[in-house]
Amino acid sequence: MVATAVKRRVAPRRRPSVDYEGMEQAALFNWLRVRHPEAWELAYHIPNGGHRVKAVAAKLKAGVSDIKLPMARGGYFGLYIEFKATPPHDASVSESQRTFLQKVEREGYLAMVCRGLDEAVQAIDAYLAWPKTVVVRGSGGQ
């Protein structure tokens, strides 16, 4: 009796995907903590993107920007950043992301796309250098 070798098909191993955007966002928040601690206390990442289970993804809003800095400067109420990784690892801006940026701009926020850590650092530094937005409270009993 002759034994025949059974060849198993082995699927090629996929390289694990690298979350360049997530790594750069983490670096941005570390920079913010050191350079602008008062802004770091208020800024936050909106966990709306990424690959998720369908049940979780169904509860999220498409297009909402990645980062919000709720500090009023330069006549704006705050800053929204749609963060993309530094090229060549960046992704395109989706239609829903563009629409969200336009909507928050109409509501008095500065909204922008930053491609990479360096662009985001420059944008936040420039934004925080502007004078504080003056808020005039009405006489509505407050």
Descriptive account of the structure:
This protein has 142 residues and is of the alpha+beta class. A four-stranded mixed sheet has the order 1-2-3-4, with helices on both faces. It has a domain of 87 residues: Trna Endonuclease, Chain: A, domain 1. The model has no long low-confidence stretch (mean pLDDT 89). The termini are far apart. Strand 3, helix 4 and strand 4 form a beta-alpha-beta unit. The chain has five helices and four strands. It is elongated and about 95 Å long. The longest helix has 16 residues.
Q: What is the terminal separation in angstroms?
A: 95 Å
% residues in beta strands: 5-15%
Helix share of residues? 25-40%
Please give the oligomerization state of what you see: single chain
Concise description?
This is VRR-NUC domain-containing protein. The protein is α+β, with helices and mostly antiparallel strands and 142 residues long. The chain is 36% helix and 12% strand.
